[in-house]
Design a protein that fits this description.
- The complex is a heterotrimer of chains A (222), B (313) and C (117).
- Chain A has 222 residues and is α/β, with parallel strands linked by helices.
- Chain A contains seven helices and seven strands, in the order βαβααβαβαβββαα.
- Chain A has helices at 9-16, 30-33, 39-55, 73-76, 95-104, 148-151, 178-188, and strands at residues 2-6, 21-27, 61-67, 88-91, 109-112, 114-124, 127-132.
- Chain B has eleven helices and eight strands.
- In chain B, helix 9 (249-256) runs antiparallel to helix 10 (263-279).
- The chains are: A alpha/beta (222), B alpha/beta (313), C mainly alpha (117).
- Chains A and B meet through helix 7 of A and helix 5 and helix 6 of B.
Chain lengths: 222, 313, 117
């Protein structure tokens, strides 16, 4: 899923401090799972903001709503009838939802309530880590299902580098060396000979470098 | 003495290796400013005792005068530089362009490296590139040289003629693929290897044995890396704090066992003994002496190691 | 035991302090509470295994937020005791009440009064 983390309350206060009516909108999907922007987080943020502004002697109406997703037209429609009541929306969805909301309700300012970080997994409750960077040309078949693009700090396709130490990446922070994991996996699969195959130069035009991307399925388009 | 082979470039380093001599290279780090005299002076100290001089490329991600410009300065002095190039800071366009830049000055040697992560240097907030990795860089330079083609397929007018090298670390993790990794670099086109500095001679000999088992020593020239220790503190630091470094306890003990003012001399002694011992290891084609900020000791190490005078290419 | 403790305390019973959410704690202050304290089992003795450890972290988070918004994180606190420790329960009530009294009322109450005036 997309993993995000909450922006600081101070930052959000800065965004909305000159407004009188704000809607905090959460999302039931990824940001709920990574506990950054679901219904609970919306409630906590709204409560905190109300108390802050009340304490400052400022009148501000802060409402809450959480929708299923913010990346589909149908779900964003749910707030069409109320959106004009608010001067600003703070969306706790990932950057995708913030933008889609902003495009759809063009006359409304939509602020981000979270920092969107990466596509990743829940290792355990409270710990999420990166697994995919959407390079657009998945090579997991050759690396035993472990991604060197997203998990190697240097995205080496023929790693490891000389900084791999006891299975850990030279950048520290308890980041495992992706190539150690790949080698362990290839060994477990009895395919360590594959390690010596030279991975070809990657076509980065399919990832960010090539510009904003689009996927089209003509066969399902209406 | 190694078998003689036909050199493929005009590189003096390659010619010496191809003739079967033990080669000696060393390295100089460029300054953190634009005064080229600083690098020229370092080169002057060692120029008669080495066959080629590596110029590091923003080592440890600390921004310095670039390797290419430094190599040009050395070339204009009549010396033989080795261009070190990391893939951290350049995409394939800049890489090929810089290779042509080096070739335009007839710089004849290149070492292809990944590069330390930028968080270690002076610009931890910067982007990194890694458009190619170090293996793909080796392939690219070989293709530019041997096929005369850019990666995109177009013809290169006056293709570069570079002797292509890579680094190897017999002591790094994961241990089980250390020799496979060398094989991979050879398959990618590496023609010479400079290893990480060696203190654990036995472990290096074991690596060389596995290298020889696969016949890799006949496909690539392996230069054993050595760094003289300046102090017991340096030995301990390298042992404990530097990943991929194997400093045996008895080396630390030996350094600690002499008074502080004698430790630099002992470090040189250990280095010279290593040279003499490694000379006997089959498959070792030469030495790469990395005396960081201690370049003035390189001549002594080379002379006492019985590697002086240097042969003419 | 029929021990005495201040009558300014409203007790909200839960099956386990693990049921306390950060949002509940904040909402209490939003609605004008001067202080909130959470009383759970001794650490390691939680009847439902680790509920009291979760509550501990949530109380810490609530404290952090209350400091940021200017209410004061010290107004919320967690205590651990066993259900047999009646006197300790009463003492906690007394101590907490004194602490909150010394801190003064919830600043939001004053702001609301000002507004109403």
């Amino acid at each position: 899923m997309i993993v995000a983390e909450r922006k600081s309350i101070e930052e959000i206060i800065e965004y909305i401090k000159d407004r009188d009516k704000v809607l905090i909108v959460g999302c039931n999907e990824c940001v709920t799972v990574c506990e950054a922007g679901g219904k609970k987080e919306v409630g906590v943020l709204a409560s905190a903001l109300r108390m802050y502004f009340m304490n400052q002697g400022k009148e501000i109406k802060i409402d809450e709503v959480t929708m299923e997703r913010q990346c589909d037209h149908e779900y964003l429609e749910e707030i069409r009838n109320i959106v004009d009541q608010y001067q600003a929306i703070v969306s706790l969805a990932c950057g995708v939802g913030v933008q889609f909301m902003s495009e759809k309700y063009f006359k409304t300012q939509v602020y981000p309530g979270v920092n969107t970080c990466f596509m990743g997994v829940t290792e355990e409750r409270g710990v999420w880590s990166e697994r995919c960077q959407g390079c657009g040309q998945c090579i997991l078949a050759t690396t035993g299902g472990i991604c060197p693009v997203s998990r190697c700090a240097k995205r080496l396709l023929n790693g490891p580098c000389g900084g791999s130490s006891k299975g850990m990446c030279e950048i520290g922070g308890e980041v495992p060396c992706a190539w150690q994991i790949i080698i362990d996996k290839l060994t477990a699969l009895g395919r360590l000979d594959d390690y010596e195959k030279l991975a070809p130069i990657k076509d980065w035009s399919k990832e960010r470098a090539g510009g904003p991307r689009k996927v089209v399925r003509e066969d399902v388009r209406q | 003495m190694n078998q003689t082979r036909e050199p493929k470039t005009d590189s003096n380093l390659e010619k010496i290796l191809a003739a079967g001599h033990l080669a000696v290279t060393s390295e100089c780090g460029p300054p953190r400013g634009s005064d080229a005299d600083l690098i020229k002076k370092k080169a002057e100290i060692i120029k008669n005792h080495v066959d080629a001089i590596n110029i590091t490329d923003n080592q440890t991600s600390v921004t310095r005068l670039c390797s290419l410009a430094s190599c040009i300065h050395l070339k204009l002095m009549g010396l033989e530089p080795v261009l070190q190039m990391v893939v951290r800071d350049r995409n394939r366009i800049a890489i090929q362009s810089d290779v042509l830049g080096a070739a335009s000055f007839d710089i004849r040697n290149m070492l292809c490296l990944s590069g330390d992560h930028q968080k270690f240097g002076d610009s931890p907030q910067g982007q990194n590139v890694f458009d190619l990795d170090s293996m793909q860089l080796i392939q690219t330079v070989r293709r530019m040289r041997d096929e005369g083609k850019f990666l995109g397929g177009d013809e290169i007018k006056r293709p570069p003629k570079l002797f292509v090298g890579a680094a190897a670390n017999p002591f790094a993790d994961p241990f089980e693929i250390r020799v496979r990794r060398l094989a991979k670099k050879v398959a990618a086109g590496a023609e010479f290897i400079q290893t990480q500095c060696i203190y654990n001679i036995e472990r290096f000999e074991e690596w060389m044995r596995q290298v020889r088992d696969r016949g890799l020593h006949e496909k690539v020239y392996i230069l054993a890396g050595l760094t003289p220790l300046k102090s017991a503190g340096m030995a301990k630091y390298m042992k404990n704090r530097v990943p991929g470094m194997d400093v045996p306890d008895d080396v630390v003990k030996r350094m600690s066992g002499v008074p502080k003012d004698k430790q630099p001399d002992e470090g040189i002694n250990i280095c010279v003994e290593s040279v003499q011992r490694l000379k006997e290891v089959e498959g070792v084609a030469g030495f790469h002496i990395m005396a960081i900020e201690w370049e003035e000791k390189v001549p002594e190490i080379v002379e006492r190691g019985g590697l002086y005078p240097r042969p003419n290419p | 035991m029929r021990l005495r403790y201040p009558d300014s305390i409203r007790i909200i019973r839960l099956p386990c302090t693990g049921k306390v959410d950060v949002g509940y704690l904040l909402r209490a202050f939003e609605k004008g509470a001067d202080g909130v304290y959470v009383v759970g089992c001794m650490e390691g003795d939680c009847r439902y295994n680790r509920g009291n450890l979760r509550a501990k972290k949530r109380v810490a988070e609530a404290r952090r937020i209350l400091d940021i918004v200017g209410i004061g994180g010290d107004r919320v606190q967690m205590f651990n005791l066993s259900s047999a420790e009646g006197p300790k329960f009463a003492q906690i009530a007394v101590d907490m009440t004194e602490k909150i009294k010394a801190m003064g009322p919830n600043p939001l109450k004053l702001k609301k009064m000002k507004k109403a005036a």
